[in-house]
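Notes from the 1:1 (GR / supervisor)

We went over the backlog. Supervisor wanted to see one worked example end to end before approving the batch request, so GR pasted a single chain during the call. The sequence is below; no edits were made to it. Supervisor asked that the structure be written out right there so they could see what the output format looks like.
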Amino acid sequence: MITLNKKTKKNKNMKKVLLSIFAMAALTISANAQSVIDAEDGRNPNDFYQTGIVVGKRAMPYAFLRESDVVWKMAIWRHIDLNENFNQFLYYPYEQGKNEQGRINLVNLIMNAAENGEFDVYEDDDMKVPQEWSKALANLQGKSTKARYGEEDEFGEQEVFYDTIPENLDPATARMLKLKEYWYIDKQDSRQKVRITGLSFRFSKNILRSGESEEISEWSFWIPMDDMRVRQVLVNANAYDENNDVAERSYDDIFIQRYFDSYVTRESNKYNREITDYLTGEDAIYESQLIEDKIFDIENDMWEY
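Structure output shown during the call:
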């Protein structure tokens, strides 16, 4: 009788084990089937796990700042050279639209969003006068000439006519960025902070001068970087990180964390001029560094030991 009870208990335990195995197998098959279904529904097969770093992310508003809390501020203009190795992640991929990896560079991201009317663009860095997109684009388009030959005369010569042909803007020619930013001291925590307020691109285009084509550089409209609509565009696209694909930052993070190399070209001054208006060569470079040092010395001079 005792032996029968032991066998009965053993059979029950075996049934529980078998049921657990079957349940786990069913869940595994269901998960695999779900993965196949997800892939067939249009999910990129390269996304072998659910990514949510950028999708659905919202730009975080800046902390409220009262006028009475700002005890000092200075306007600074600086350039970001995309030819520099450190900044090239902002330039590539230069193809218009997203590439096969789903990436898009900063210039194309901004241009596409502006063209779709997602935010306003402005004529200058004061950003008080909005500019229509058609006009802003027309200012950046170049012109070239194309030879057209007439009929031969009795001497076998042809008259040459030159037609003016408009050229579409090529975003890949943007190799320089200009930032306008404000450094200020917040008395609430006695810290020096910075806020980027404007961004502009420098494009190359051809113009006609004395009947000949000549390449020049032209600064674009200004983008209000303090506008939440602009920041939302930036936060929904990742910049490339050559060391770790998982560690990619959004373009909004790039500017907030100041993950770029740049140099000062102008500070707020009574003459309203840039450094290159009164200095050149090594003297201009030295002056740029002096302005950088002056900004950081202001915060250090607030403290006494």
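Supervisor's comment: The chain has six helices and ten strands.
Batch request approved.
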